[in-house]
Amino acid sequence: MERAGAEAAVEVLMQNYFGKVTHGGFYWRAVRANIREVDNLAGQLLVASPRLVDPNFVRTVVVMLNHDGQGAMGVVINRPSELPVADYLPEWVDTLASPEVVFYGGPVEQTVAIGLRESADAGANSTPIPGLGMVNFGEDQADLTDGRVRVFAGYAGWGPGQLEEEIEEESWITVPAFARDVFSSVPGDLWAEVLSRQGGQIALLASMPLDPELN
Predict the structure, then answer these.
(1) Local confidence band at 22 (pLDDT 50, 70, 90 cut-offs)
(2) What is the pTM for the complete model shown?
(3) Which of 57, 86, 101, 159 stands 20 to 30 A from 69 (CA)?
(4) Measured between alpha carbons, how far is 159 from 52 in angstroms, rounded to an integer?
(5) Each residue of 56-81: pLDDT tens digit?
(6) 78 CB contacts (<8 Å, ≥6 apart)?
(7) What is the mean pLDDT of the chain?
(8) CA–CA distance, 22 with 91 (Å, rounded to integer)
(9) How far apart are CA 24 and CA 119, in angstroms?
(10) pLDDT surpassing 50 at residue 146
(11) E strand intervals along the chain
């Protein structure tokens, strides 16, 4: 489906699926209510809104690790692959969070492995999310790592102003991030779970079908 056609289908679904609750632009008011200031979104989650039809990001949840004047960088945390980490980093198997596979981190540099770990350490390898650290597979040792580890191939990146434009277009909903989100044992449910826990109007989006034609 072409992008314009997909977006049109989503607009129709909003009116049909939610019925009267969408009257007067309810859906987009709900999304706007969850758009935070874009000065610095490091430490937040980006949750793809139903309007976002780019196949790289449909129904994704992205944990934001950096955001400044030079751009933004994050990792998609709810797209597991079928590739066992053991085939690539066998020494890290005992530390892995379930499922023990490589996750699709984003469309940029997919040959690069990025590791995130549970950690109470606020040192050089910490992230903006409390309890979440980064792993340097070239230097860190698996037997010295505390907490679970998740391995990602690639990352999501935005140039200066690009993420701000996408948020202005209401492609993303921004919500607080928790370390436990990264290590969910049911990543396929994470998109709906994150929306549901926001409560109120935005939680209704969690029950929206993926395919507008299924309505």
Answers:
(1) very low
(2) 0.82
(3) 57
(4) 18
(5) 999 999 999 999 999 999 999 999 99
(6) 59, 60, 61, 184, 187, 188, 190, 191
(7) 83
(8) 51
(9) 45
(10) yes
(11) 44-48, 61-68, 71-76, 80-84, 101-104, 108-118, 132-135, 149-158, 172-176
CA dihedral 200, 202, 206, 211 (to 10 degrees): 140
Token look-up 């984003």 returns 106
> How far apart are the C-alpha atoms of 36 and 32, rounded to whole Å?
8
For residue 186, what are its two tokens? 């049911």
pLDDT on residue 39: 66
Beta bridge partners, 156, equal 74
Distance CA 157, CA 154 (A): 10
Tokens of 53: 């039809």
Token representation of residue 17: 């699926």
The H-assigned helical ranges of 42-161 are none
Residue 81 token pair: 């692959």
